[in-house]
Amino acid sequence: MSSSEAIVSTAIAGAIIGAAVGGWINDRFGRKVSIIVADTLFFIGSIIMAAANGPAVLLFGRVFVGLGVGMASMASPLYISEASPTRVRGALVSLNSFLITGGQFLSYLINLAFTKAPGTWRWMLGVASVPALIQIVLMLSLPESPRWLYRKGKEDEAKLILKKIYEVEDYDNEIQQLKESVEMELKNTEKISMMQLIKTTSVRRGLYAGVGLAFFQQFVGINTVMYYSPTIVQLAGFASNRTALLLSLITSGLNAFGSILSIYFIDKTGRKKLALISLTGVVLSLALLTVTFRETEIHSPMVSPFESKQFSNNTCPEFNTATLNNQKWNCVRCIQSSNKPTCGFCADHNKIQPGACLIKNDFSKNQCGKEKRAWYTQGCPSNFGWVALVGLGLYIIFFSPGMGTVPWVVNSEIYPLRYRGVCGGIASTTVWVSNLVVSQSFLSLTEVIGPSWTFMIFGVIAIVAILFVIVFVPETKGVPIEEVEDMLEKRFVQIKFWKKRDSLGSQKH
User: Where are the transmembrane segments (predicted)?
Assistant: First the structure.
């Protein structure tokens, strides 16, 4: 594992632990306390990383950051959901997703701003402590979740907060539903356990939907796009690191734009329909990427023995052996050479014409550059590269408004109050474990089977996700949180979309 992979993996491992522990802290100490603890961990981690004097200290700081991110990933949407009026609940949780994706875009810009500053990386890591500190201060002035307070017996405090959230005509109804929900839960004094979660019908069905959405959110490949977008751009045939980073910035911007769309559509279209529209677009985008990368592999520029020999003794040894055996190589075969040393492709001035296969090192890169040629080590020159970029852009635009936000919204509102923190923690842990598996296997998969088949695998998983959403995910749009439990009790298979509620507030079937 490379140092960069170790740094990424350490943070994700911390997030897995933070998400798992965060569910218990959410239920035991409240949503507000959980968010403040998460911010504190993030603040400490950022300071440690900025002051690091070696890799070990840097990794130690990343663990703190990961713990904070894992805890906040479910605590924030849960707090927002429980402190929001029903009619705008989805939009406000989606706003949380927009602020996350917008923050990612902003971080790219901040990193660019600090590229020429003394101690560049320390500023990049240390500046992350500022928003964490600001949120700690602001959270101290905000109330606790009224639903959590009500369940903990602080009814008067909860009612005061709910009066500020709901219109007068809705307030009595919300209080009555909350009272009935809490009374039902308090009858069950049994300690929460995994066996109890499975035995409780509404919780079990909620977990099917919530954990399934969390799993598919990651396994359709989103974080391979976000973590490795510069690599994917190079796989599409764009050799320049500068170009790859610029296009990655655009990718991050599209992700933030998609989150804005979610704010508008999630309470109008509904969670389930938005997820299905999103996944359908993801399937089409991945199909386009699969075909494009396959065409790039098939029409890869050939390797010319004559071109390769022009670079003295730096020709790829494996290519020399293949030439002696009358084997013809193309660029893809060159950069995927399995023996040591690994090799790279120095393109012809007309990039799709035969080029040279050379040992992958700085000398080869510099020699290729002196000839005003492009140097490829991850992807190959192609006439189809721009189509891959279109596919990448479409993937982000379709994913972000739907599968980027719907899993978080559904998981913040689908579980009974007593189990909400624990179940949310399970779903959040699923997200981070899936994230780790996908992000750590992506580059290995592209090396073994190529990017085209890798994207096809993600596409097949997205098709399975569509079927899963149709069958198991209920529509929670406009349904008061306290009524979701009753909805799940009555129905397991969710193939039929939930219709609009009638004037009495009961669900039509």
Answer: 6-26, 33-52, 58-80, 92-114, 120-142, 207-229, 244-267, 274-293, 384-410, 422-443, 455-473
